[in-house]
From TrEMBL:
Organism (species): Leersia perrieri
Protein name per its UniProtKB record: Serine aminopeptidase S33 domain-containing protein
Domain annotation Serine aminopeptidase S33: ranges: 61-304
Coiled coil (residue ranges): none
Any matching Pfam family: Hydrolase_4
SUPFAM superfamilies: alpha/beta-Hydrolases
Amino acid sequence: MAPPPRDPPAPATKYFWGDAPEPDEYYASLGLRHTEAYYQSPHGRLFTHSFHPLTAADDGDVKAIVFMTHGYGSDSSWMFQTMAIAYAQWGYAVFCADLLGHGRSDGIHGYFGDMDTVADASLSFFLSVRKSQPYSHLPAFLLGESMGGAATLLAYLRSPRESQSPQWNGIILSAPLLVFPDGLNPSRIRLFLYGLLFGIADTWAVMPDRKMVGKSIRDPEKLRVIAANPRRYAGPPRVGTMRELARVTAAIRERLGEVTAPFLAVHGTDDGVASPEGSRLLYERAASEDKSLILYDGMYHSLVQGESDENRDRVLADMRAWIDERVRRYGGRAEA
């Protein structure tokens, strides 16, 4: 029997853009100011990033704020930054946080036994920024990619409801994981058998490895760069992680009718990691009056990080048109 396919050899570089320039110089060359910090949430410490356009006179001199959440096994310090950089270059203040169990945030690498806790930790950080000066008067958007899309919807559903104005002016979802494709569903038999061990096996990395990175990235060169991420979780899925993904995706599907915020969902029709059926269900069931769904024929899972430059630019152009229009439509810097 032939051995299973392996990730392609990865270039060993300090940063996703190479060994040089150093971060401050790199971001400045893109017209951005970038900061890193740790945030102590009620559930653990989160590693965070912020991106601001250098053209902004101060932190609040931006169109709106966007809070971004990465996908499974990833973090906000590697190729996921390409999305944050794009939004900041469009005039938005962008904040990202590594999910618990990912990147440089607290937790066992690649593990989350409770997605509600994971979502609440990120939500705590997002709200701390959203309510602070100079951001409290600005429109605010949530953005999630892949599993981060599920975490984003969960954070939205768990957000406190304000009587005066909404916490979130819109949601952007890139290939959200709401429905597993055929053959990728976690094995119920395995989860049941490991569950008989009364939690002992919850952190075990023993679930089948479906080589999801290869199913996500269509551009071979970008696949090599993404595989080089030193903080990417590349081990077999952990028992508790897959149990929670199965539980929470089903739970979110039952609550899609509670989504009332404007949203844009984008999805590739050849996505082998998160079925586009999930985005279709969101579009059909959400109560939002302003909702948009764009399906890209033949594209894979990672629409911004893993497609050709031409396809990436097409997706980003659609995202930019949507968010710029919502900022204009819903009042720009209207008082909160």
